[in-house]
Each structure stands twice: as structure tokens, then as C-alpha cells.
Design a protein that fits this description.
Distance between the termini: 26 Å
Number of helices: 11
Number of strands: 19
Strand order of the largest sheet: 4-1-12-11
Number of domains: 3
Shape: globular
Largest sheet: 4 strands, mixed
Helix content: 25-40%
Order of helices and strands: EHHEEHHHEEEEEHEEHEEEHEEHEEEEHH
Mean pLDDT: 90
Strand content: 25-35%
Length: 395
């Protein structure tokens, strides 16, 4: 069983991904044989070695014949479907391509079939998408890990003007994927690279213990910055490494200092925030502010989509004049809620890692209805939940 660990500290593009696989051991002869299934001649795909700040890497360049017609969305889909390759390879290629054109469609506000595709209008993208999908299948890669993806920094200029990095389509494709911008100049992740990562990557956690078999470097086009512009692919074998499953996500952290509202006002605000969809955590701390005035520090952790609603509630319900907000990365354990029976009825129980906790509201409702102490309901739910967990040894 094979595994792949992508190290994207210099970003990722379609040609970098494919080049890294070739550098790591994907056979060029078999690859060129696959290209013949989509009528791509050998001279149209140039595979060479290059140096990137002292690192030897493979560089793949597509130079289509001048008589090749411009390809539209339907043409590219047909090429994938009629390639005669394994069904899984074709399905994955379609998934990557669909991600890109759907992002372009949203950015430009037009139907998918009418989108003018910047990066995906040529033979190079067909080769990149189908090449990576086929290459992973050919190398028998069962699972793919990746580091957070470096998107680069600054601006990128294309036919519609100058926009911040990541480009609009790339940003949409990278939704819910951990990214970094550590100041590396320029656009470092392309829509095709982002879509390939989105479709094929199983986890953005560190893979843990692995047995390394080969290393490949795929070269990008840029030479500036403080590191080699390469995508590194680590090919590993052996039993699947055991890692603790975690969820990585980018959330919004808001906070404000308040010294002119009563506890009742803050309590009412907290209740409204607690009922707002997307709010994950609320904390109010007592503080001492300038001129030795007592005050409160209000902190809210929420999903980015809820940030505007949180600001509106804080401005409307408190005397704050300003709110600080920061994008934060949160790593959390997956949570599962199962129903557990008690003598008074069913209670939801939350499982996360080795933590087991009955849902407080469920316990309180049963206690009020049955006229028994809340702690008895809670204790019964917890005991039964632990027993069920120990018997199944799974969540």
C-alpha cells in the first residue's frame, strides 16, 4: 500500500504536482503511453531536469502544436471521458476539472458552459489533471497527506485586472483547506494545483510514522523568494500510520473591552450571541481598565460567516465603540453525538477522543419533566455512555 505526503511550502500547481510524481518514480515511458490515449504527441510534452536554488528537480512543460484548436468546457470533459483510462482515474479528473470551472463560474457570474477559462483552456491543464489522476493510480497511492498550502503574497495580474493573492478562483477552491502566507512573493498556488490538492488530499495533518521509499521534486516557474520553488513528494509504503484524527479550520476570534454596561446588559447580550448560528464559544472576563475602572473583556469564537452578525449584536446591545477581530487556526477533535437511554428518557452524549459528556440541556429537560435532581440524570447518562463506549471500543 502506497502513501504520498505533499510538502507545499512553496505552493502547488498542476505541473509541479505531476513533475514531482515523475521525479519520485512515475515511469516516463508509461506516462507518455497514457498521453497517447488522448492524442498528445511526445514533442508536445517536454520533461527535463532543472535546478532550483541548488535542488535538482523535474520540470514538465506543455507546448501544444500551433494547429491545435482552442478547447472549451465540453471538449475537455469529452477528452477525459473518451480516454479509455480506468474509471476511477476519469472520475477524479472530472472532479478536479469541475471544481475549477465552478469556481470560475462563481467569480465571473455566468453559466459554467460559457465561462472563459484562463488556466484551463489549454492542453497543459488536461495533461496536468489527467496526468496526476493517472499517476496516483499507477503508483498505487492509497492515501495523500499534505502540509497547509502556501498561497504566496502580494498581487496577481490577469485579463480582468490586478487582484490579491490567492486569485479569486483559487480562493474559492481552497475553501475549508488550511493555507499559509508567510511572505513568499507572488502567486504560488494556481487553480489547477488547488483543485488537485482539494480532490486528492485525505488529510492536512502530519502523517506520523511512515517508511519513506522515494522523494520527488517538481519545479515551478518562479525563481524569486527565499527557498527553492519546488513541490516535494514523499512516497511511503507500509501499514497505514496511526494518527489522531483532528479537524483543522480557520475561525474568527472577536473581542472587545467594555466598562459602561451592567452585568444584566452583558448577560442579555451573551444570550443573544449564544443563539446566533455559527457562534462557537463566548467568554466574559472581569478586568481592570484605565483609571482603575472595573470592566469586562468579551471574547467570541465563531465561524467566519457569523462574524458580521456578532459585530452587529455587540454594537447594538453593548456600549462598545470598537471590536478587534483576528483569523485564528483551530485544531479540534471530531465530535460524535449518540443517544443514550436513562430511566427518565433519552439523552444526547457527545464523544470526542477520550472525552464523553452528556448534553446538559437534554439532562435538564428530563430532570424538570421527571421532577428529579439534575445530577441524577447526568450521572445515569454518563454511566451508560461510558459502558456503551467500553463495550464497542469505538465512537
Amino acid at each position: 500500500m502506497g502513501y504520498l505526503y505533499l510538502q507545499c511550502q512553496s505552493g502547488i500547481s498542476g505541473d509541479m504536482f505531476l513533475s514531482a510524481l515523475l521525479d519520485a518514480g512515475l515511469k516516463e515511458k508509461k506516462f507518455r503511453g497514457m498521453l497517447k490515449s488522448i492524442r498528445v504527441a511526445d514533442h508536445e510534452v517536454i520533461i527535463s531536469k532543472t535546478m532550483k536554488k541548488g535542488i535538482s528537480a523535474t520540470k514538465l512543460t506543455v507546448e501544444p502544436d500551433k494547429n491545435r484548436p482552442h478547447l472549451h468546457v465540453a471538449d475537455i470533459r469529452r477528452i477525459f471521458s473518451e480516454s479509455g483510462l480506468d474509471r476511477t482515474v476519469i472520475e477524479k479528473a472530472h472532479a478536479v476539472f469541475d471544481l475549477i470551472i465552478e469556481a470560475e463560474s462563481k467569480v465571473h457570474g455566468m453559466p459554467v458552459e460559457k465561462v472563459h477559462l484562463h488556466e484551463v483552456s489549454g492542453l497543459d491543464t488536461i495533461v496536468d489533471i489527467l496526468g496526476v489522476s493517472w499517476g496516483l493510480h499507477e503508483m498505487q497511492i492509497e492515501k495523500v497527506w499534505s502540509t497547509p498550502i502556501n498561497v504566496g503574497s502580494g498581487d496577481v495580474t490577469f485579463s480582468h485586472g490586478t487582484v490579491p493573492v490567492p486569485a479569486p478562483a483559487t480562493a474559492l477552491i481552497l475553501k475549508n483547506i488550511p493555507i499559509i502566507d508567510d511572505g513568499l512573493p507572488g502567486e504560488r498556488t494556481t487553480p489547477t494545483g488547488a483543485a488537485l490538492a482539494a480532490v486528492f488530499t485525505d488529510s492536512y495533518d502530519a502523517p506520523g510514522h511512515m517508511v519513506l521509499q522515494s522523494v520527488g521534486y517538481g519545479a515551478g516557474c518562479r525563481d524569486d523568494g527565499n527557498r527553492p520553488n519546488v513541490l516535494r513528494a514523499l512516497i511511503c509504503e507500509g501499514s497505514e500510520p496511526k494518527t489522531t484524527a483532528v479537524i483543522q479550520e480557520t475561525l474568527t476570534f472577536l473581542e472587545t473591552d467594555i466598562d459602561d454596561d451592567t452585568s444584566e446588559i452583558l448577560g442579555n447580550c451573551m444570550d443573544k450571541l449564544g443563539m446566533t448560528e455559527g457562534v462557537l464559544d463566548i467568554t466574559i472576563l472581569s478586568t481592570v481598565r484605565k483609571k482603575s475602572r472595573p470592566g469586562h473583556l468579551v471574547r467570541i469564537l465563531c465561524k467566519p460567516s457569523a462574524a458580521d452578525s456578532v459585530r452587529q449584536i455587540l454594537f447594538a446591545e453593548t456600549g462598545t465603540l470598537g471590536i478587534r477581530d483576528t483569523a485564528v487556526n483551530r485544531v479540534s477533535l471530531p465530535r460524535t453525538v449518540k443517544q443514550v437511554q436513562t430511566p427518565w428518557g433519552s439523552v444526547g452524549v457527545k464523544y470526542a477522543g477520550n472525552s464523553i459528556a452528556p448534553e446538559f440541556d437534554d439532562c435538564r429537560k428530563l430532570a424538570d419533566t421527571a421532577g428529579v435532581p439534575l445530577k441524577e440524570v447526568y450521572r445515569a447518562a454518563l454511566t451508560n455512555a461510558v459502558d456503551a463506549y467500553m463495550k464497542s471500543e469505538t465512537i
